[in-house]
Amino acid sequence: MAISAQLVKELREKTGAGMMDCKKALVQTDGDMEKAIDFLREKGIAKAANKGDRIAAEGLTSIIVNGNEAVILEVNSETDFVAKNEGFQVLVKELGEHLLANKPATVEEALEQTINGVKVADHINAVVAKIGEKLTLRRFEVVTKTDNDAFGAYLHMGGRISVLSVLEGTTDADAAKDVSMHIAALKPKYVSRDQVDASELDREREVLTQQALNEGKPEKIVAKMVEGRINKFYEEICVVDQTFVKNPDQKVGQFVESKGGSVKSFVRFEVGEGIEKRQENFAEEVMNQVKKD
């Protein structure tokens, strides 16, 4: 029998399986929705449908560099165990290559594009069905440089943290990687002072002023003290002002200048940062089960 697009869409919404898998299931079951759902479940393809409410806060970050273009991305899984799965790692690589080649503006746009002849979202769902965990393309950033610049690509703990930096005016990739390693360790928020938002600076100055007054410092010297502490604040959040981890006698900015360049930009991704992880209470879970029994 002929299978309508509407029927395929309905089965996809109910199971989370890919379009082609849904069409095949409906053909196999002569358009019977319930039998088609069972067919997909038997094949393990419908597993993806029930994972939408789970929290995927583990996974991998990755970087792919191709000439003057590079992409840094994060793909999440539910457990760290799955992050070590070869199928998951292949998916991360495939997604990175796709993002670099197609340069979508957003994750939503990326999921609507096609990879290996199917939608990216469906491709991810197919891997979900095999692995049995919720998987999510969380974020990415495509970065470009010129022939006179250097990429610094650094992965820490196999991709737990990734940093992609760009040094301008030097082609020293080793120096750029050293800067990325520093960023992975010290987690700066900005390249330099001129990037710090004025409202963030005003808030910090307010806090430091109140701290000094609470310490009983005379008002006439508070302003001078605050400016000294603001300089310390800059050293905490601006990479060029930070003491270089590989040489405590140098600031990062000075190190890069010694290589004939400057820090243009950086992107730092850490797996799961900002995601509220579900706290499992196994003792409570067991007790609840005992009470039920």
TrEMBL record:
Annotated keywords: Cytoplasm, Elongation factor, Protein biosynthesis
InterPro entries in the record: EF-Ts_dimer_sf (IPR036402), Transl_elong_EFTs/EF1B (IPR001816), Transl_elong_EFTs/EF1B_dimer (IPR014039), Transl_elong_Ts_CS (IPR018101), UBA-like_sf (IPR009060)
A matching Pfam family: EF_TS
GO cellular component, as recorded: cytoplasm
UniProt entry tagged with the keyword NADP: no
Keyword Signal: no
Family annotation (SUPFAM superfamilies): Elongation factor Ts (EF-Ts), dimerisation domain (SSF54713), UBA-like (SSF46934)
Positions of region (Involved in Mg(2+) ion dislocation from EF-Tu): 79-82
Domain Translation elongation factor EFTs/EF1B dimerisation: 70-273
Subcellular localization(s) per the UniProt record: Cytoplasm
Single GO term (MF): translation elongation factor activity
CDD domains according to UniProt: UBA_EF-Ts
Family: Belongs to the EF-Ts family.
Entry function: Associates with the EF-Tu.GDP complex and induces the exchange of GDP to GTP. It remains bound to the aminoacyl-tRNA.EF-Tu.GTP complex up to the GTP hydrolysis stage on the ribosome.
Protein name: Elongation factor Ts
